[in-house]
Amino acid sequence: MSESSRDAVLVRIRQGLAAGPAPLPPRPDFATPVHPPLSNADVVVAFAERFQQVGGEFYYCEDLAELSTQLAAYRERQQVGAPYVWEPDLQAVLQAAGVNFRADEAGFVANADLSLTSCEALVARTGSVLVSAATASGRRLSIYPDQHLVLARPSQVVAEIGDALRVIQERYGAAPPSMVSLTSGPSRTADIEKTLVLGAHGPRRIALFLLEEEGEI
């Protein structure tokens, strides 16, 4: 560096020091929400909209009769047999609705084209279904079958993922489930040559049947 260049650098340094310390950046407002408002003030409507945007199929059922009709129509369209259902509470609901299901594991590996499970919560922000291994469905029924059906109630819809995780914490306390999974639409991947493939790591199709709370209609 020449003498003149060094002098110019030293002049700029002296000027910078004379001006005092650089102003601090504005303090962030940690009270400001990270996310924009939901698409609808009604979290159930917001969930239904987002769930369909990410590739899920949404069916609203006012009562058991409509649940039976919707499930029968779904099976007819997809040309699938009765779903595997391992949760006693769900089996009781389906029996009351007159819906056939498979309660055992006979032929599961070869014939598991359709399953029906409950869920822990539904997240309106992401349209996700939160499932866990704590139910009688275990890990397999939400992952192995080609098509996954979920039966839920409007009271299970929460706004954010954090709210859903708090549901898990409050429900199970110090003994959380061995597996908790957020499912956002059907399983998909584009790892191979950027070609989108459905069903690579889980169900190719997911459908949610939202059954109205008992006594609400």
Q: What report would you give on this structure?
A:
This protein is an alpha/beta fold. It contains six helices and ten strands; from the N terminus they run ααβαααβββββαββββ. The protein has a four-stranded parallel β-sheet with strand order 1-10-5-2. Strands 6-3-4-7 form a four-stranded mixed β-sheet. Strands 8-9 form a two-stranded antiparallel sheet. A hairpin with a 7-residue loop joins strand 8 and strand 9. Helix 3 (64-78) crosses helix 4 (88-97). It is elongated.
User: DSSP helix count?
Assistant: 6
Give the DSSP E fraction (strand runs of 2 or more residues): 15-25%
- Helix % is 25-40%
Gap between N and C termini: 84 Å
Q: Reading side by side through the largest sheet, how are the strands ordered?
A: 1-10-5-2
Profile the largest sheet.
Answer: 4 strands, parallel
N-to-C SSE string, H for helix and E for strand: HHEHHHEEEEEHEEEE
Number of strands: 10
Class by alpha and beta content: alpha/beta
Runs with pLDDT <50, length 5+? none
Task: Write down the overall geometry.
Answer: elongated
Oligomer: single chain
How big is the Rg?
A: 26 Å
Mean pLDDT: 89
